[in-house]
Write a structure and sequence with these properties.
12 helices, mainly alpha, Four Helix Bundle (Hemerythrin (Met), subunit A)
Length: about 325
Amino acid sequence: MSILQRTIKLVLATTLAIIIADYLHLTYATSAGVIAILSVLDTRKSTFAIACQRLLSALLALSIAIALFYVFGYHLWVFSVYIALYVPLAYYWKLETGIAPVTVLILHLFSEKSISPLLIVNELSLLLVGAGTALVLNLYMPSKQKAIADYFVKVEEELKVILCRFGTLLRSGDGSNDGQLIDHLEKTLSEALELVYIESNNQLFQSTNYQVHYFEMRREQEKILKGMSESIQKLNLQSQENQILAELFERTGQQISKENPANDLIVAIEDFLEHFRERPLPVTRDEFEGRALLFQLLGDLERFIQLKVDFYDSYKP
């Protein structure tokens, strides 16, 4: 939520809450505006959750305060005992978000020196009006689906570039590497995930699990790419295996889109492993180290592809 959107919602929530409280002839009507200010949060789910927590917190606080005021009267030390009992219990039951606004409502009882049913209903009504107004205003949240769709395309393009770059490096036998590509992908994924988490928390009844899981899957793939990058930096010998593995990287890049199940790539890796087993054993130390690095890269590529296959199997039509 932008600062402008938040400001507009705070102004409307505060004003409407006080107007509604006045219309209902509630005493301390301005308290409804204060509760509304505290209840306008960044997402629909958080606003709804806070409203529920504050209602439960109010019921807890009223139970303690009514019992203490009824038995001991309206003295400052009694209010202090209320605080001493209510605060730790609120934290214990994870209702601490209601401590400040609910204690303001209890102070109304303390000031009025009354625990009449009418006054208690008044305080609960103030809470419901304030939190309810904030919740209604937060039902409007601008959709981020267009931006998320753009991130789908952007992430897949960046993955394709990195995989094809790996293929080029394997063909040339040059271990030099451009780590900035992976760093940029990491930044893009962080931005995408931040966006889909916000969108997910703005959906009370719909689900955006697909989007969350998709970008989390891509983030796991990005971590594997970092390991591949380190291996390629150490690989300086050209060989027939280099060329085959380069082709696998390039094929993976071409099949990176979310609609492609990539099952045939797993088969291609199995074929390459069989080719590895049939090749003559390395003779020199450099050949042995090169073969070991290629085998490690192949294993990393298989894990990279398997993440995509598992994701596709979970969400296939």
